[in-house]
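Subject: complex prediction, re-run

Hi both,

The earlier run crashed halfway through, so I resubmitted it with identical inputs.
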Amino acid sequence: MRIVEFDRIKEAVCAMCGQAACDLPDDVLEALKNARQKEHSELGREFFDQYLQNSEIARKERLPLCQDTGFAVFFIKMGSEVMIDHGTVSEAVNAGVREGYKKFFLRKSIVADPLFERKNTFDNTPAVIHLEQVPGDKLHITLAPKGGGSENMSALRMLKPSEGRQGVVDFVVNAVTSAGGNPCPPTIVGVGIGGTMEYAAYMAKKALLRKAGEHSSDDRYAQLEAEILEKINASGVGPQGLGGEITALAVNIEFHPCHLASMPVAVNLNCHTARHAEVEL
Amino acid sequence: MKKVLHTPFSESDIRALKAGDRVVLSGTVYTGRDAAHKRLCAMLDNGETLPVDLAGQAIYFVGPCPAPPGRPIGSAGPTTSGRMDAYSPRIIRQCGLRAMIGKGDRGEGVKEAMKEAGCVYFAATGGAGALIANSIIEAEVVAFDDLGPEAIYKLELKELPLVVAIDAEGNSLY
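This time it finished cleanly. Structure:
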């Protein structure tokens, strides 16, 4: 067994909160620069220039890229030989979020009750934590802060298997284009196909973590990604929904075995400020 | 060419703007998101005086990050305006609001009120919160402090770049 200290997890998470909020990952930056070259709309290009300027200011002045510093969503791979000296991984992560959102002046965006009081918890907890056990003695933590504007444009449908490939294309393209400017396009489109209802949604979110420019390792799904991306970008929604060629930067599909009666499809969008940070302890 | 604008606005200032115009805006604006709008409308229902006078003014749909030391405000980009569609027509008609700043399309009810009363909708750049923060030179909470980031702030803008997304004739870039 290998002991990982509670405080070490907490401190790592705290640092990641600041890093994720202020430093746009290089792959996203590169994708934005490439997309700007392809954008013909004059206004669209102005928006791309502002995105790039924004990322420079955020990095240099340590200001969050976006005021919506998000729901703190974690994907954690915990080695089966890892033990924490006290408490649980969830407690350590929440302690790190509480400290990080305060220390780096990030917005606290979580309300305690979704329907009635909607009172802010004022420390951005609780985080959403997806925990997976893997072989080995390492603890791998990925933080993907998720803004509300893009999250609100999510979609899920239990398609009939007979609707097939075309059914998936139509559903995803429609979800993205009908979202218009709300999710801050150009977006990264996460798609989960298969599994159960909640597992499809989980895959759609997980798909957002893929590095920009990487495609599905399965050729059939990689082709599907390309076709959906082309159709989305032919819609003319454009940057900020104000017209142009580039509505999405990437379409990332994850898939999973499913019930013989079902074909769940979930869509989760990430704004152009596609933030994530990771650490291995 | 960018049009240089300063708040407060007259009706003729607003009716002269056309969808697609690039603008730089300076002067005082008030922030407000759905929670603040809901309270403002409840106060109107009860015949109470609102904590801010919105006549001729602009509301910026934003919930900013806390101000780091030495700065008036943290990151401060626009939120999705559609969530205010339930409240905006009333604020426009009853309070004399002349401009809204946000991101994303607006509903028909909002556009009707904008045409009728003379109000414009500016798009700020969603996801450019750090850049926008550099156009905000002063900030103070003026109402609903308990709402945290959703409180009403009074902001002093200096040359904030915007686009007229929907004008007072109902022409829209969306």
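The helical segments of chain B are 11-15, 34-45, 88-95, 108-117, 129-133.

- K.
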